[in-house]
Amino acid sequence: MAVYRRSYKPYAGTLTPAWSRFLVIFRYSRKSLFRSKVQTGLFVVCFFFPIACLVMIYLAHSAGFLAKIGIPSQILSIDNSFFFRYMSVQGGLAFLLTAFAGPGLISPDLANGALPLYFCRPFSRAEYVLGKASVLVILLSAVTWIPGLLLFVMQASLEGTSWAWTNLWIAGSLILSSLIWISILSLLAMALSAWVKWRIVAGASLLGVMFFGAGFGQAINAVLRTDSGYFFNLGYLMATVWNALFRTDRMQVISISQAWAALLFYCGVCLWLLLRKVRAFEVIR
Amino acid sequence: MSDQITFEDVSKFYGEILGVNRVSLSIPSGITSLVGPNGSGKTTLMNLMTGLVRPSRGQIRVLGYKTDDPENLFKIVGYSTQFDAFPKGLTGFQFLYSYLRLSGADSATCERLSWQAIERVNLGEAAHRNVAAYSKGMRQRIRLAQALAHDPKVLVLDEPLNGLDPLARSEMIALFRAAAAQGCYVIISSHILHEVDVISDQVVLLSNGYVVAEGQIQTVRNEIQEHPTQIMIRCNRPRELAAKMFTSEHAIEVSIHKDERGLLLKTRDADRFYLALNELALNGIEIESIAPADDDVLSVYEYLIGNEEVVR
Amino acid sequence: MNSLWWAQIKAVIHLEFKKTLFARRGLWIYVLAALPVLLYVAFAFAVGNRQHHSERIAHRGEKQLTYQDLSAVRTGMKKDEVIALLGKPPVADHWTEERPVVGGPNVKVAHEEYHYSDGRSDLNIGIADGNVDYINLSSSNDLGQDSVMFAGVFQFFFLRLAIFFGCLGIFMNLFRGEVLDRSLHFYFLAPIRRDVLMVGKFLAGLLATCVIFLTSEILQTCAYLWHYTAAEQDLYLYHNHGLEHAAIYAGVTLLACLGYGSFFLVAGMLFRNPIAPAAVALIWEAINPFLPAVLKQFSIIYYLKSLCPVEIPVAPGTSPLFALLISNSDPISAPVAIIGILLVSAVALYISSLQVRRMEVNYTTE
Fold it and tell me: Which residue of chain C has the CA closest to A198?
């Protein structure tokens, strides 16, 4: 090429749609997700209970087989309580998955000074957070509402369309309860990951928030002879919301509106932490 | 006590990845430069001689001390690493002072040594600022200060001029020279070959974890038989001189310099050529200068390491 | 040589304190230790307010009542019988309820709620249609109940969570944190033996956790005794083993810091991601009561529980699982418990000293 032509020219080809750019982060973050054998193993373990539920659904419709092995068919009842229990177990496993996968999302970028590299491009903080969150959303969806919906479809196909129409709300509850829990876990994991620069400490903090919060809540209830301690127990708050969504009649100490308010408060705090920490610069005095 | 830094058949493997292999070296006092491309093993060699990593095989001794004896070793060794990270929450002064206290010295001594080191690297004004707020050059200087603070006999410096402005570079080079003049062992790794040329007493060339050559540059150059010595001659009648050189058995190749005021000669026996030049340069040819054109680090690097990369 | 090592250890401790404990990054440990103190302070305020409320109600009553008077009320008694027994209620609430009746119009039911107090205990009586419908007799706190409450919170919250996570954060970071910060080589490049360095760092962490959590434990004790009168405090502390219990809790706190600290120190050195062993330890400690006797001994909480001075009684009707959790079915003697923890710590420190000598600085693999 002639020397006078050797100059910088901006890219003149077609651009990808602006709304989809956050998926670039997802594409690269997901590659590191299954590098850890422990994480991969845990992901596989998350499917054991849905498979067991699938077997239970099948058995519930095999009265002859149950009679042969001496189990009364009334024991296996596939109803809203069944799906509530499914959600409880998978919700716990989703938390464990988040504890492994979540801390590595933002901490390494903070520790290695990568945030300025992201934000010196036409890429907003919201897109960055959305991209990172999409990793967890997709991962946790794969172990919560997606297998849950499959179970629902399986049950509907065996039970008949009238059952499906009558209980279609359970499918909606499955999706909604999963998405709420995924949102909370994602925000919490990212906020802790952004606040501490070490991935390991972020993981410990996530465990701490859950277990220490629950323990502290119990201590408050025991010492002050109140029920306010449950507001520190994220798991209990979520179970209260799930209880209402699945219309199960378990005794709840705090009302559904109080649980919602507390969860929204936690989400607000997480968003504030993210806003403070996910920046292109860090001022050190 | 030995007066050298010795590597005896030292190898270091990081799993299946080779760090250095079968390195045997004796490093005398003075300024020794470790030269090689990225990944050649320079930092590994430095980490080995300071005990930060253990050799997979072989033995290393630094002035008679084993590298797994930090209590004695680091009284005489100072190492400025490549790691651009510092303990959080400390100012420049606190950083130097606190780590000097680890030697067991009293507070007054540590304070005096800290300030001395800070003055040597010209960081007096920034000494009470948090290290995390330093610029790249300041961080490099405080690393150097940490290595120099306790007046060690052996200075191991991994790319010490990285990030420094030209004035700071010349100051540091003067400092290294002064240390070497006092009998210290200064081991430097650098990519800036013309500076290595200027300051080094000896070089160690590394490639792919092997020591390719070691010693003084001229000695190393003389041993590279496959590349004839290049000599630049500046004279008033280069073409005439070139024609005469072809009659000499020592000249392999002659090329005229583009400014027509000199010529570049290749010869396998520089000493004999110089003797022959006296006769060749008679009959009115005025010779302005004669100098080897390729006995610098860059040329040796290209011959020994650059060719390997090309072949690869 | 010993004086040199001591000087070096002191220098390491000083540096650790400056970097972590007296820095903003160490704030969370103080919060962890302060939470139970704040809880007991809130408890003292709540109890104090409740007592003032009770005294106000008692003062407004027609006659001076005793606990026996309050506990004499039964469900089904008539309103007039209640008033005859306890006098006119100093505080009374009235409301009407419309109850639906099958096959007929709604029926209005008159409700009343009477509040009585003897100055310490409160009695709430619910009256529907002139008959006692429900009784709620809440006794004031006594030191016996409060010491059991303190024991429960101490064992299940303070030891297993607060000290556990505090030690996890501090001791795990002593070496693993330096590796993540890429600053470990500064220690290794100092003329200090690596095992002396390890001892110095461990002592720094131990000193910090002991001071923080011991202070927290002492303040908790003061806070939960705060609302009692001086005479009651005196009686409890000097005549009912109160001081002895407080000293034992302090000792248990120190041993917990030692035990958990040494475990997390070695975990931080052996594992690249010490969260996995920490999670395992958390679960292991939680299920300790359900393990066979042989396996129980491989736990720090097993020894600490045996040292706690106040046993948590199992209330009748408690589920067997919960009863197993709160009771100490295989208690061991205090000397054995102390030796057990010291032994666990010594083994952990020995492994740490071996490991620190073998450590290499290779940040690129982290």
Answer: C180
In what order do the strands lie in the sheet containing B17-27? B17-27, B5-14, B57-62, B65-66
Residues B30 and B151 in one domain: yes
Gap between the Cα atoms of A118 and A122, Å rounded: 8
Same domain, residue pair B210 and B95: yes
CB contact under 8 A, A219 and C168: no
Q: Where are the beta strands (DSSP E) in chain C?
A: 91-101, 104-117, 122-128, 131-138
Instruction: Specify the higher pLDDT residue, B282 or B258.
Output: B258
B13 reaches C (C-beta below 8 A)? no
B residues 149..168 contacting A (CB < 8 A): none
Q: Is residue A10 part of a domain?
A: no
Q: What residues in chain C have per-residue pLDDT under 50? A: none
Interval A136-192: pLDDT, tens:
999 999 999 999 999 999 999 998 889 999 999 999 999 999 999 999 999 999 999
- Whether residues B73 and B209 share a domain: the answer is yes
pLDDT one-digit tens code per residue, B194-215: 888 888 999 999 988 899 888 8
* B190, part of any domain: yes
Whether A109 maps to a domain, the answer reads yes
Q: Which residue of C has its CA nearest to A206?
A: C275
Across the interface, whether the CB atoms of A223 and C278 are under 8 A apart is answered: no
Q: Could you tell me which of B312, B238, B250 has the C-alpha nearest to residue B275? A: B250
Report the domain count for chain A.
1
| In a shared domain, residues B165 and B195 | yes
pLDDT of residue A13: 86
Smallest Cα distance from C162 to chain B, Å:
25
**Nearest by CB: C183 against B68, B73, B86:** B86
Q: List the single residue in A with minimal CA-CA distance to C149.
A: A223
Neighbouring chains of A at 3+ CB pairs within 8 Å? B, C
> Per the CB < 8 Å rule, is B71 touching C192?
yes
Question: Are A204 and C152 a contacting pair at CB < 8 A?
Answer: no
A2 assigned to some structural domain: no
Nearest CA in chain B to C193: B71
In this predicted structure, which of A84-98, B150-164, B291-305, C330-344 has the lowest mean pLDDT?
A: B291-305
CA C225/CA C229 separation, integer angstroms: 9
Q: Do B73 and C191 make contact, defined as CB atoms within 8 angstroms?
A: yes
Residue B307 within a domain: no
Residue A2 touches chain B, beta carbons under 8 Å: no
- Chain A residues whose CB is inside 8 A of the C141 CB are none
CB spacing of B51 vs C188 below 8 angstroms: yes
User: Residue A49: inside a domain, yes or no?
Assistant: yes
Please tell me the pTM assigned to this model.
0.84
Same structural domain, B207 and B76: yes
Same domain for B187 and B50:
yes
Categorize the per-residue pLDDT at B310 as very low, low, confident or very high, splitting at 50, 70 and 90: very low
- Enter the tokens of residue B82: 């490549």
Same domain (yes/no): B177, B273: no
Question: How big is the A-B interface in CB pairs under 8 Å?
Answer: 5
Q: Indicate the residue of C43, C180, C279 with minimum beta-carbon distance to A224.
A: C43
Taken in order of first residue, the domains within chain C and their CATH numbers are 2-49+142-365 (no CATH), 61-138 (3.30.1450.10)
How many domains does chain B contain in total? 2
Query: Per-residue pLDDT tens for B28-43?
Result: 999 999 998 888 899 9
**Are B55 and B140 in a shared domain?**
yes
Instruction: Taking the CA atoms of B128, B133, B137 and B143 in sequence, report the sign of the dihedral they define.
Output: positive
What separation in angstroms does the CA of A91 have from each of A86, A178, A247, C228?
8, 8, 17, 45
C227 and A CB contact within 8 Å: no
User: What gap in Å lies between CA A195 and CA A109, rounded to an integer?
Assistant: 12
Please say which residue of B221, B243, B277 terminates a domain. Answer: B221
Any idea which residue has 């005479």 for tokens?
A: C231
CB atoms within 10 A of CB B160: 25
User: Would you call C8 and B73 a contact, using CB atoms and an 8 Å cutoff?
Assistant: no
Residue B91 within a domain: yes
Domain containing residue B43: 5-221
Angle at B7 between CA B2 and CA B11, to 5 degrees: 160
Assign residue B280 the CATH number of its domain. Answer: 3.30.70.100
